[in-house]
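Marked as duplicate of an earlier ticket. Keeping the data here for the record.
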Amino acid sequence: MMSLAFDVLSKLQGKTLVTAESCTGGGIGNALTAVPGASAVYKGGIISYCNEVKAELLKVSRDTLFACGAVSAPVAREMARGARETLQADIAVSVTGLAGPDGDEFGNPVGTVFVGYADAHQCIAKQFHFAGDRAQIRHKAVEAALKLVLELS
């Protein structure tokens, strides 16, 4: 994971990156800050484990949360956009998903994860379905988020 985080930070030299994390609970930030000199690119992040924090700090629409659920592409996009705007960065990545033990009321099973990405030109979300236990799903979600930043930035 350190190699992937290093690659992300190296590619983003001269730009700033922020994170908005739910199911990963700060795992992306942890991976990035394990790299010496990360502060040249990584500004920080918001861990938004509940809908109230998503709405208040990341400006995720309460209507979107109600209609789509927290584990959805629209919420991942709004989390990334909100983090980018709130923390004033060039790029933001977000993660929202279900690491277990249960699925949600919208029919999403454990292992469903959405990763959002926002920069000045695009705001997208990708859906993933990871197998494994809680720790494995969270690890795979962090890896997917870092790979998406590397791919799109």
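See parent ticket for discussion. The mean pLDDT is 96.
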